[in-house]
Amino acid sequence: MVQIQIPVTQSAGNYLLLCVYLVDPVMRFRRQRGYKLEIPWWQYLLLAFADVQGNFLVVCAYKYTSISSVMLLDCFTIPVVMLLSSVFLRAKYTRSHFVAVLFCLVGISVLVISDVIRDEELASWDVSALYGDFLCLLGSAVYACSNVGQEYLVKKENRRMEFLGLVGLFGFLISSMQAVYFEGDLVRAADWTWPSALCLLGYILTLFVMYTSTSIFLTTGDAAVFNLSLLTSDFFAVVAAKFLFNEDLTGLYFIGFSLIIVGVSVYNRSTPSTCTDIQDDSTDLLLP
Hints:
By secondary structure, the protein is mainly alpha-helical. 71% of the residues lie in helices and 2% in strands. It has one domain (7-185, 193-269). It has helices spanning 7-18, 23-31, 41-61, 67-73, 77-89, 95-116, 127-155, 160-189, 194-217, 223-229, 234-243, 251-267, 283-286, and strands spanning 117-119, 124-125. Strands 1-2 form a two-stranded antiparallel sheet.
């Protein structure tokens, strides 16, 4: 089966679907005289740019490392979200939360080691896997910025539809320009079949549902809990890696997975007390 590698084009379809949420702010603008965006448009542009690049980096990581590693390394978003939430949203975390993050980080480290040393007998260094791990970690950090920004906008400003619509609009423009420049020839040269087209459509629809659900969750929850909850998808990643992609999972993988599960369990023992308490003056901290 010929692989079609178009990470930016994949995301562009999702952002195009998100533009449907522009109907709400447009109707408000037509009905309410003096209606204006609560957040300047250029700040939505920054969040859309971060979101596009986060998706791009994580999808690119699949080219170099295993699906199971990408799914687990994705949890690097959690400590980054906690750091950004503490600085910009003034969330307060207990000692148990930081212990939980420590377990997750140790689990990530073990996972990276398991990717670097693929062949235990020869102890050969897989540089491409290390590069894929780096892309995933970088993408997770960038995506965390988008998560925290989204939490602020949908919770403090109560502009969920506005956020989705404008991020969809700017995200589509940014990803389309990148897709034309970097992937235009690949899209035209690709041998499109029904299975590949359905896979692309499934990816776009799934991402659209995820973005919509995330915005609903963040109206009451917080970005850290959201990203921790996403770790439950690791179980399905393991099943897919083993039975669909025939990946060999080493002992180090299960050690890293166990450490991450312990970290999630410790974190869920308590919830940050100020996650729903976003201060009025936090706008200046969140975005320049």
